[in-house]
Amino acid sequence: MSVTLEQVGALLELIAPISFAEEWDNSGFNVNLHNTDISGIMICLDVLPETIEEAAEKGCNLIISHHPLLFRATKKIDSESYEGKCVQMLAERRISLYCAHTSMDSAPGGINTWLADQFALANRCYIQNGLVERFYEVAVHTPRGHAETVRRAMTSAGAGRLGEYAECTFNIDGKGTFRPEHDASPYIGQAGRLETADEIRISSICSENDLQKVLRAVRKVHPYEMPAISVLKTDEPQRINSGLGIVGDMPSPLPAGEVLDKLKAALQTDSVRVAGNLKKKIRRLGVCGGAAGDFAELARKKGAELFITGEIKHNEYAAQNDIILVEAGHFDTEKCFCRLYAQGLQKRLDDVNYNIAIYVTNLRRPYVNY
């Protein structure tokens, strides 16, 4: 069975939705050769000429990279430039390119989740919240005899889910009044006469994502020609669906030096750069892959005593404010991307029985040596 690029693209949205990406980023398709049947997929950290050659040799016509090839505004494609050469190679070999950059940084189960998992951090919060999903209160008036049917329709469509609780509703008995006009087809009563009915007001919370589905479900089962439904946007609760960087509690306090030993083992690296007292006991830790030195102060405000990232600028070290800073390398803090994304994509392919080979490129060492 052939699988199109568009069908695979829909699965990629399930792993790290584009809505999770930062506004300044260029996650998503950098090169989209439409109406293509996918023969194989290559996953890499960076798009390089040798990566494109490897993909072509393995019969892949889709590359998924972490870092975008077209990151900044491009005014021209010059085949002598790095970006232009890669675009030319992709086009000649009929290979599309999809980039999961800050979308994968921010996604639950993404790069920063992996980093936090290496230290088994508890009581986690994002350093910078990403996509925040609002909630609504949906209330509907229904005849008492139909209350259970309407209530079940609401909750089956997604209403009433709060944390670890489901089917949460509030119900008030009352009297409804209405007067059908001449062209109405009332479920109860007669045209032109004021009617009174025993009704129940059912209200429940639902997420922004489920709102339209809940409203359709109510209208489908409600006996009235024009059901009375009200929708109110709430300040609380809200669901934080994504975010950059994570701060959390260590299972038990560890000297900073021992935290670094665990970090080097997890990243399989020999050295990291650090500024601060290595004997200090660390109870709360912050992590953010890539170049996130500017997050150090935000991490400190959320309780982090030590902050790990890939790159830190000189002025960010200079502004160190009672927090230990660790620079573990952009490459090393993000190289987990390939394995994480391959596992996530394989699961989605298996779920829908798409038989497509996935390859992970041979990861190069960092571009600089120490």
Can you walk through the features of this model?
There is one protein chain. This protein has 370 residues and is of the alpha/beta class. It folds into three domains: 5-103 and 335-360, NIF3 (NGG1p interacting factor 3)-like (Udp-n-acetylmuramoylalanyl-d-glutamate--2,6- Diaminopimelate Ligase, Chain: A, domain 1, 3-Layer(aba) Sandwich), CATH 3.40.1390; 111-130 and 243-333, Udp-n-acetylmuramoylalanyl-d-glutamate--2,6- Diaminopimelate Ligase, Chain: A, domain 1; 132-240, 2-Layer Sandwich (Alpha-Beta Plaits), CATH 3.30.70.120. It is 29% helix and 31% strand. The chain contains twelve helices and 15 strands. It has helices spanning 5-15, 49-57, 82-92, 102-106, 111-117, 147-156, 211-221, 256-267, 296-301, 314-318, 330-334, 336-351, and strands at residues 28-31, 40-44, 62-65, 96-99, 122-129, 132-143, 170-178, 195-207, 228-240, 243-255, 273-275, 281-291, 306-311, 324-327, 357-360. Strands 5-10-12-13-14-11 form a six-stranded mixed β-sheet. A five-stranded mixed β-sheet has the order 1-4-3-2-15, with helices on both faces. Helix 1 (5-15) crosses helix 12 and helix 6 packs antiparallel against helix 7. The chain is globular and about 85 Å long. The mean pLDDT is 93. GO terms for molecular function: metal ion binding. Keywords: Metal-binding. It comes from Christensenella minuta. Belongs to the GTP cyclohydrolase I type 2/NIF3 family. This is GTP cyclohydrolase 1 type 2 homolog.
